Amino acid sequence: MTSKKLVNSVAGCADDALAGLVACNPNLQLLQGHRVALRSDLDSLKGQVALLSGGGSGHEPAHAGFIGKGMLTGVIAGAVFTSPAVGSILAAIRAVTQVGTVGTLLIVKNYTGDRLNFGLAREQARAEGIPVEMVVVGDDSAFTVLKKAGRRGLCGTVLIHKVAGALAEAGVGLEEITNRVSVVAKAMGTLGVSLASCSVPGSKPTFELSADEVELGLGIHGEAGVRRIKMATADKIVAIMLDHMTNSSNVSHVPVQSGSSVVLMVNNLGGLSFLELGIIADAAVHSLEGRGVKIARALVGTFMSALEMPGISLTLLLVDEPLLKLIDADTTASAWPNMARVSVTGRTRIRAAPTEPLEAPDSTATGGTDSKQMVLVLERVCTTLLGLEEHLNALDRAAGDGDCGTTHSRAARAIQGWLKEGPPPASPTQLLSKLSLLLLEKMGGSSGALYGLFLTAAAQPLKAKTDLPAWSAAMDAGLEAMQKYGKAAPGDRTMLDSLWAAGQELQAWKSPGANLFQILTKAVKSAEAAAEATRNMEAGAGRASYISSARLDQPDPGAVAAAAILRAVLEALQGQGA
Which cofactor does this sequence's record say it needs (predicted)? Predict the structure, then answer.
């Protein structure tokens, strides 16, 4: 089965993609009759060396994203994963020549089709008297034994675009640019890894992987890599990649060792989430620095993709100060990152946390809730939530991202860890305030914020008294805060429905001679009934409000969790005969 793609047609997708980039970027123009993009200020390049690159489409933002002052003059794009036509390459050379440039450098990735087509266009241009040179970039560090075809051209090619662009902008001649970037190209290496393949529009994925496998050392055209390894943590995968890239027995290795200074590129191959990309970047920085390698610059993003491939490549370029100045030189290319021009290694990455204000004395601290009793209550609540994790997640999958149980379990584990650190405060106000801070920090999501709001507000009426009327007032204050900031109301199919129902029953605590357990039992039963009633409600707030009510045939997970917490509190207190 072919994969789904948002295209107008398979045949026209490369043309449409390049046209879309040019349509949104006034600094670019298309060359009539060709799949070629050029700088729109081409006439200003008289007397400079022109830089042309390109290759198959499907590697966006490469190559057209790197057109601009200080980088490429233009690119020639082929169909997806297909070398561009010789006639279009020659037309691009002629176009830059006719505005008065003093020579053209072709920057080509080492693939047979690209070498042949760019090479043939070069020979035809030279036959017309146009000075043209060609640099073939092969930065692949996957192969341990030298292949006849040589190392493939990968994401490191972008760094060659940058260095050559800075030299051309500085007025350096064609021969010197060619020689200098040829040296730079030999001082770098790239290695890719992927969780799955990609698929060319109109086609099936190019290879299949088992659920516990990843592909190491693959190229950028969906071709398989040098070997398959077992799925592992990001730290482990990055360590394997760097070991492979820097192993001196590997003929295509990068000679990086302790004391080396490098530019690091962490490149998204197209389908990896930004979350994973950040994790990989962190692992790469720490692994390299752990080996004594100085990271002079770090580029993280999508620079040369392979359509929607969920993977990454790491590029290492050995640098000195003169080379860093070229990397740092200004460019208007839209896909080049706004990178800090300072060393990554040696920078302080953590700022000390602000000091917390001193806690004010609490008049209820002595004679307040017994700490041992509260530990038992909290432990019962935590056990209940951990036991409900899968059930709550299943309920949440109908209307959300399926993580309600995970979120509540995270809160439970945070509370368990906090209890191990020492006894909780005896004061109810301090206890609720501490729990509020803990959940705001550890629980996450809207649930963490809502529970935090509830507990913060509920703590205030308990500062002066801790009798039953004060606890009823605390419930009122918590519910008011949740409604004020959460914008939910009773009947909106949220956790508030359970808490509101319980709160109405707890009003009876304000009456003289009120019975703790009788009223609390009624409150818990009302909360459970309200949670079940959400099954038939139309969501008026929260993520579920965006879902058709016809699909919401289960009770709200937040309401179920809130009712379960109240039940756990009741049973824990009953068990102690409080």
Answer: Mn(2+); Mg(2+); Co(2+)
